[in-house]
Amino acid sequence: MSDSSTALAMDTSQVGPPCFLVCAHCSTRLAHTSQIVSRAYRGHAGKAALFTTVKNVVLDPPSILLMDSGAYTIQEFICKTCEAYLGWKFYRAHDGPERWKEGHFVLELDLVREENGSDAQEGDRLQSPLDRIDEEANPPTQKRSPSEPPTPPPKGARQGRRSVLVTSKRSHIPRRLELDEYDDAGPFWKPR
């Protein structure tokens, strides 16, 4: 087994039972922890994770984002119920080796929490995914209290400032697209 496949296997391993990730503001179900591809991401609000699918979100129009790993066309998304900013979707990767990310979602872990898989009641809520990932890396010294509200995204992440929208004048992009079910359309880019 190669080093890269070993690293991927370690990224997808879980601690504890699989759970749903829900919006921290309104408890709308967004994703399942079994769909985590990688936890090695950072978002506007802190730690983030890459997921294969996320539902119950509304996608913004595509925009260009420059990262350390290359240039990407992304779509930021918000919760369908409360319209809280949650993360972004890789719409297109402009570098060949990064095209595997197309169609995947980056969910900011400070803006969601885990909930038990059954019809969860208030008492069934588990610790936040950020706390669980921190415990894997370092033993806890001081935990954030469960009653403490999650930190809001930094200014500019969702307060009206937009990334540059690059489109042709002929193409019409819908203002927002709702994802109620899993998107099985595949990646945007197709090889020639």
Name a few traits of the molecule.
Metal Binding Protein, Guanine Nucleotide Exchange Factor, Chain A; 2 helices; Yippee_fam; Yippee/Mis18/Cereblon; metal ion binding; eight-stranded antiparallel β-sheet; mainly beta; metal-binding; globular; 192 residues; zinc
The CATH architecture of one domain is Beta Complex
CATH superfamily of one domain: Peptide methionine sulfoxide reductase
Strand segment count: 11
Biggest beta sheet attributes: 8 strands, antiparallel
The succession of helices and strands, N to C, reads HEEEEEEEEEEHE
Radius of gyration: 17 Å
Q: Which fold name fills CATH's third level, the topology of one domain?
A: Metal Binding Protein, Guanine Nucleotide Exchange Factor, Chain A
Structural class: mainly beta
Give the overall form.
Answer: globular
Let me know the average pLDDT: 72
GO molecular function: metal ion binding
Organism: Pycnoporus cinnabarinus (Cinnabar-red polypore)
Family: Belongs to the yippee family.
Protein name: Yippee domain-containing protein
Task: Describe this protein's structure.
By secondary structure, this protein is mainly beta. The chain has helices spanning 3-12, 129-137; strands at 20-23, 29-32, 36-42, 47-51, 57-59, 63-67, 70-79, 85-93, 105-108, 112-115, 177-179. It is 10% helix and 30% strand. The strands form 2 sheets. Strands 3, 4, 5, 6, 7, 8, 9 and 11 form an 8-stranded antiparallel sheet that branches. A 3-stranded antiparallel sheet has the order 2-1-10, with no helix packed on it. It starts with a helix and ends in a 13-residue tail after the last strand.
